[in-house]
Amino acid sequence: MRHSVATLALLAGTALAGTAAAQTEISILRVAVNDEQEQYYEEIAQAFEAEHEGVDVNFEYIANEAYKSKLPTLLQSDARPDVFYSWGGETLRQQSEAGFLKDISDLLPDGFRETMPEAALNAYSVDGTLYGLPLYATEVVLWVNTNLTEEAGVDVDAIETWEDFLGAVQTLKDAGVTPIVAGGQDKWPLHFYWSYLALREGGPDVVTQAMGGEGDGFEAEAFIEAGREFQKLTEMEPFQDGFMGTTYETSSGMFADGAGAFYLMGDWDYLPMRERSTDGGLSDEELRIISFPTIADPVTEGGDGATLGGINGWAVSSTAEPEAVEFLAFMLNEENQRQAASQEIFIPVAKGTSDALQNPFYRQVAEHIEASSYHQIFLDQFLGASVGATVNDVSADLAQGAITPEDGAAQVQEAWDFR
Amino acid sequence: MATAETRRLTAPDRLRRSLSNGRVSAALILLPPALILFTLFVMLPLGESVWYSFFSWNGYGTPTDYVGLENYQRIAGHSVFHTAVGNTLKIVAISILLQMPLALLLALLIYRKTPTNAVFRLIFFVPYILAEVAAGLIWSFVFDGNYGVTASIAQSLGTESFFILADRDWAFVAVMTVIVWKYFGFHMMIYIAALQSVPEDLIEAARIEGAKRRQIVRYVQIPHIKPAIIVSAFFAIIGALQVFDIIIPLTNGGPSNQTHTIVTYLYTFGLTRLNIGFGSAVGVILFIAAITVAVFYQRFFMQRGQA
């Protein structure tokens, strides 16, 4: 297809006495973003086009859920994008196994690899082959509304272990404050609890070991224990009333409106939660972020320093021209990553660029990720669409007391066996 | 002469005759477009679905992992599928036991052609005109215990707000309420049209004989509109098998997969999770269910002369 376009363009060029040069078109597909971010990508595309004559970079955007369901079909058609947005994980593996991805290891400019942290590159490799590049990192943190914690007399600095956290929840309840806001209808906000608890209980390798079928897989003690600890929390009824009917968007606005003291959510919600609030939301002084609590006596040691979040980035499709990889490296160069950081668009992943961050919350998250012993990618992405959705289902069922921790672990294992 | 008579019965001759009277050419010209479209967009995808349903396939590349009937076994053993089938049956039951009598009652009240009745007819028919997704969204705001109508009601009553869509036991009741609200107008319209065709002199005669209003309804009007009732029940059952776009914005199948119908189950567990093989198997089951219902219903209720 691309060849015939090029030939056509060439023919047209000859016909017009050589006024037009052959065009290389690079198409990039991304999950929809706000105007400011579209502007950011547009400027990068223009800068690249200015340096490379005859190259045309096109960004296209599709809304989140639609993107996920359309991508498999698009990749199998002639209209497949050269570069597309990715969350890494099992989905990337499935795409590579189906032969839709390009090995870009040898196509990168010299020295580019060294600008990226090894862990972030690993997130875009399958069995050691690099199929894409990371764009930014996110972390799930516990947001705190300090007005409410102060009102109830909770010392946020004293919250270190899960027991401390449960104690704080009790204190808040006694003071008549809703302890936690959660968007249960979308389920994935609840899966953060289960994932973090599993990481803390089972250590950094708990998920990869289960995926490799070691021991009892997802039915290992750490996952069951994680379910038990989660239910210790949910039995206290810590969430706002009707939390299973609340979407992520609503919950985010509710937290900013002061409906609850804690809110477990990614750093990306810093600006959106204010936009969704009815009265402008919480000011920086009324907000704090703390790491997810640790477990005093875990099943396996070592999970205290692990973080949960995402390493979002780009995958390169098998039919992409070398120019597409060149553009990708350009888009992710130090300068552009710094630019994104100073505009507070995202937390850059390239080494040494996070000092361009001005916002104290983003800086803190960047420090967390840098200090992290292991950055676990969201389980609902990492385990692929099917198993990931099962983890979300199980988390929601556990939160409502509809299943036991043992059932939950067994359901995840079953989904993994039949993925 | 005799030879000519026998020759007229031979096959080539018959063919020539049907060619000359245009039947064959009509079939040759008119059949292919419909046949091609039907084959391309109905039969082929159907066959492909059956084929995919024997594979564990995530939609990437071509299916290679043949699993036989395992998809069907998994569906049969999946508790959420049982709930989905149960919910679909509940919708059938509520449609027949509540929605249709309600529609009939209203139709009997407003079937006569008067200006007031026209206004009521329009009011009752409006929910049906609304797009399903819009209706689902509107009702999700109504049921919202934080900011919605429910919240205001609870506030003015001075009670604690309630969250019906977040309640595992009650969420589907809310869904069924919306379905009844959405479709009763459609059934009502069918009944109104039928009631208007009941001969006025029959009703007059019954009245002269001393029949009361209830008796007229029971013995004159309902027997007369029986074909319409049978057709509307058929739509209700087939409609129940297809309910999808109301549930997605309202509950998205939650809380904890309690409010799925067969189609939202297919969508959630087949498409959004990219288990294309599994989803195809659900589709095949749904197709068989729909065909069975249609055939049996036609066979037992919609015999010649009845509808």
Automatic annotation (TrEMBL), chain A:
<keyword id="KW-0732">Signal</keyword>
<protein>
    <submittedName>
        <fullName>Carbohydrate ABC transporter substrate-binding protein, CUT1 family</fullName>
    </submittedName>
</protein>
<dbReference type="Pfam" id="PF01547">
    <property type="entry name" value="SBP_bac_1"/>
</dbReference>
<dbReference type="GO" id="GO:0042597">
    <property type="term" value="C:periplasmic space"/>
</dbReference>
<dbReference type="InterPro" id="IPR050490">
    <property type="entry name" value="Bact_solute-bd_prot1"/>
</dbReference>
<dbReference type="InterPro" id="IPR006059">
    <property type="entry name" value="SBP"/>
</dbReference>
<comment type="similarity">
    <text>Belongs to the bacterial solute-binding protein 1 family.</text>
</comment>
<feature type="signal peptide">
    <location>
        <begin position="1"/>
        <end position="17"/>
    </location>
</feature>
TrEMBL record, chain B:
<dbReference type="InterPro" id="IPR035906">
    <property type="entry name" value="MetI-like_sf"/>
</dbReference>
<dbReference type="InterPro" id="IPR050809">
    <property type="entry name" value="UgpAE/MalFG_permease"/>
</dbReference>
<feature type="transmembrane region" description="Helical">
    <location>
        <begin position="228"/>
        <end position="248"/>
    </location>
</feature>
<feature type="transmembrane region" description="Helical">
    <location>
        <begin position="170"/>
        <end position="194"/>
    </location>
</feature>
<feature type="transmembrane region" description="Helical">
    <location>
        <begin position="118"/>
        <end position="142"/>
    </location>
</feature>
<dbReference type="GO" id="GO:0005886">
    <property type="term" value="C:plasma membrane"/>
</dbReference>
<keyword id="KW-1003">Cell membrane</keyword>
<feature type="transmembrane region" description="Helical">
    <location>
        <begin position="24"/>
        <end position="46"/>
    </location>
</feature>
<keyword id="KW-1133">Transmembrane helix</keyword>
<feature type="transmembrane region" description="Helical">
    <location>
        <begin position="91"/>
        <end position="111"/>
    </location>
</feature>
<feature type="domain" description="ABC transmembrane type-1">
    <location>
        <begin position="85"/>
        <end position="297"/>
    </location>
</feature>
<dbReference type="GO" id="GO:0055085">
    <property type="term" value="P:transmembrane transport"/>
</dbReference>
<feature type="transmembrane region" description="Helical">
    <location>
        <begin position="276"/>
        <end position="297"/>
    </location>
</feature>
<dbReference type="Pfam" id="PF00528">
    <property type="entry name" value="BPD_transp_1"/>
</dbReference>
<dbReference type="InterPro" id="IPR000515">
    <property type="entry name" value="MetI-like"/>
</dbReference>
<protein>
    <submittedName>
        <fullName>Carbohydrate ABC transporter membrane protein 1, CUT1 family</fullName>
    </submittedName>
</protein>
<keyword id="KW-0812">Transmembrane</keyword>
<keyword id="KW-0813">Transport</keyword>
<comment type="similarity">
    <text>Belongs to the binding-protein-dependent transport system permease family.</text>
</comment>
<keyword id="KW-0472">Membrane</keyword>
